Amino acid sequence: MDVLIDALRTALGPQAALYALAAVGLNLHYGYTGMLNFGQVGFMLVGAYGIAIGVSTFGWPLWAALILTIVAAVGYALLLGLPTVRLRADYLAITTLAAGEAMRLLFRSHSTEEVTGGVFGLTRFANEFYELNPIPRGRYGFGNLVFSHQTLWVMIVGWVLAVAAALLVWRLAKSPWGRVALSIREDEEVVRSAGKSVVSIKIQSLVLGGVMGAGAGAVLAISQQAVAPDAFIPEVTFFAYAAVILGGVGRAWGPLVGAVMFWFLISVFDSGIRALADTGAMPDQLFSADALGAYRFVLVGFGLMALMIFRPQGIFGDRNEMVLGDH
Amino acid sequence: MTTLEETPGSSKADPVLVAHDVQRWFGGLQSVGVDHLEIETGLVTSLIGPNGAGKTTLFNLLSGFDIPNSGSVVFGGSDISRAKPHQRARAGMVRTFQLTRSMTRLTVLENAKLAAQHQVGERLWCAPISALWKRQEREIEERARAVLATFGLGRMVDEYAGTLSGGQRRLLELARALMLEPRLLMLDEPMGGVNPALRETIMDQLRSLAAQGTTVLIVEHDMDMVMGVSDWVVCMAQGKVIAEGRPATVANDGAVVEAYLGSGYGDPLEPSDVEGAQ
Fold it and tell me: Residue B26 CB: number of other CB atoms within 10 A?
């Protein structure tokens, strides 16, 4: 029972909310526009450090840091997008992946330490956010599933942002803009021959989804009151992809459900493996302390494989549409 | 038309499209080297020639999908040599593809609606507010349904385009092209993979388009079609325009026959040729 409570806490907590937000942006890129962005983590880094640097380094109020975050995310999207959107999807994937890593190394390097805090990052920049918390001090929840008023505040903001982003994507997908974006996913040449600018729609999609990623980064930074560069490893992008695929690629609400499922499963596997290790039934070499953390991802991998075999379209996807996707 | 000169690169009375010195090289191989070509307004012009003559390459160069090594293209009086493909399409120069292309995971109706121009809802900041584009969307949908119905796709509107047969995809491409209301319609092998019943539909559509005054440029291998719908025929071989004129004139042109059958045609095959090949 505790395993499920823990899993539920993780699946509804700020972590899942911010992954949901990042995944909604990624879904706009990949699911709706067909752009293989392997560096969503780069946008998250920009978002997290935008808040942290704005408040901690520059001493700005939170709203100013928020504006800096959005401007920086738009700038990063343009920097990344303008030279690469004309290229094929796989080149964009390589560029975004490398750019994400480059950002992490840049922000942890000695030369930028005065601004970014180097390897140790920055802390305590979200006080203003928590002062805005309208929820009275205390603990909230049912039975063992409780959150502190602070966590609850971040959670609510995180989920409101994620739902708002999904709502926007859903509206866009039903509009003529969405029709052009989906058509780009299907066949760029047709879109060109229909007199539409593929480049400008792709850039718009990249910027919008990137800003959502940056929002996720900002929620991450605020929820932990700390940022460190090594939180922004490439795996973060792939976890967000897992959420997109679980929920159903190109489904507006898919990433929200996908993120909840992903973190629920991670937590269940984690607790399950630990419980198994504690029984002593398994040899110690197999279940050393370092290995435990890795096993849950092995299990998630099996879970995703099973999903691809039995329900490749994800929870909300359409099987017929999936079959037609193979040209 | 009666006054048009039947020589390669001849000047026309009212050309919609003028290509001058258009060259395309792939390494050391010249794929297209058209000195001068004018397409007369209001006619159906067919571009014929043996395989590898450079017809599709010329098509790509004219529509902006490929960039020539040199040369200029003037469309409707303005130089579009540097215009991108979507800008040329917006200007009214609309093409289809030799291998049909469509958005397989969009419905037939959405495929057609995509091609409508000046859509307010395509602007990112207008898109989420449906009140701004609902009325226009309805008009576009009505027009799309009407165009699809003329191509016999009326009952398929809600199917995914990926479920259509090869011939139906040709019709969908044509319908999509017409949604742009082209000044010049460029069709790359519109009869490829189309069964005889659908061929008639396509021919009828082309004739009625021509009757309404749309200028049509067709690349086609099907000689029945070329002779049946063309007002003017341009023949290419090895990247050059070798003949142009009325269908009957071109069909009897010595250079054209030679290009199709090969210059060595008629010479008996010597046993030494076969040994040399081995």
Answer: 10
Q: Which residues contact A168 (CB under 8 A, 6 or more apart)?
A: B128
d(CA B261, CA B171): 32
Distance CA A145, CA B233 (A): 79
What are A146's two structure tokens? 């409780």
CA B75 to CA B92: how far, in whole Å?
A: 9
Confidence of residue A304 (pLDDT cuts 50, 70, 90): confident
Is A159 in contact with A267 (CB distance < 8 Å)? no
CATH code for position A85: 1.10.3470
Closest-CA residue to A244 (of A282, A216, A278, A286): A216
Q: Label residue A136 exposed, middle or buried (CB < 10 Å: 0-12, 13-18, 19+).
A: exposed
Q: Which residue has the tokens 């996720």?
A: A216
Contact A193 B133 (CB under 8 A): no
The answer to whether residues A118 and A59 touch, using CB atoms and an 8 Å cutoff, is: no
Eight-class DSSP state of A145: E
Which among A183, A193, A324 has CB closest to B162?
Answer: A324
The closest of A200, A194, A158, A199 to A24, measured between CA atoms, is A158
**Chain A residues closer than 8 Å to B87 by CB:** 195
Query: Does this complex have an ipTM over 0.90?
Result: no
Question: Are B190 and B218 contacting, i.e. CB atoms less than 8 angstroms apart?
Answer: yes
State both tokens at B238: 């090895």
Contacts of A180 in chain B (CB under 8 A): 114, 122
- Residue B273: the pLDDT is 46
Distance between CA atoms of residues B233 and B129, nearest Å = 49
Structural domains in chain B? 1-102+166-264 (3.40.50.300), 106-163 (no CATH)
pLDDT digits (tens, 9 = 90+) for A87-114: 887 888 999 999 999 999 999 999 999 9
User: Per the structure block, which two tokens stand in for B207?
Assistant: 């004739």
Whole-angstrom CA distances from A121 to A97, A111, A218, A231, B99 are 22, 13, 14, 10, 54
Distance (Å, whole) CA B181 – CA B177: 7
Sort residue A137 into left (φ over 0), alpha (ψ -120 to 50) or beta. Answer: beta
Nearest Cα residue to B243 out of B37, B17, B21:
B37
Chain A residue whose CA is closest to B63: A193
**pLDDT tens digits along A191-210:** 999 999 999 999 999 999 99
Chain B residue nearest residue A319, CA to CA? B105
State the Cα–Cα distance between residues B256 and B250, nearest whole angstrom: 7
Q: Please name the residues in contact with A93: beta carbons below 8 A apart, sequence gap of 6 or more.
A: A36, A37, A38
Q: What is the pTM of this model?
A: 0.90
Query: C-alpha distances in angstroms, B105 versus A179, A223, A251, B130, B157?
Result: 11, 40, 13, 23, 13
For chain B, counts of helices (H) and of strands (E): 10, 10
A-to-B residue pairs, Cβ atoms closer than 8 angstroms: 113
Which residues constitute the domain of residue A118?
A: 2-324
Burial class for A142, CB neighbours closer than 10 Å (0-12, 13-18, 19+): exposed
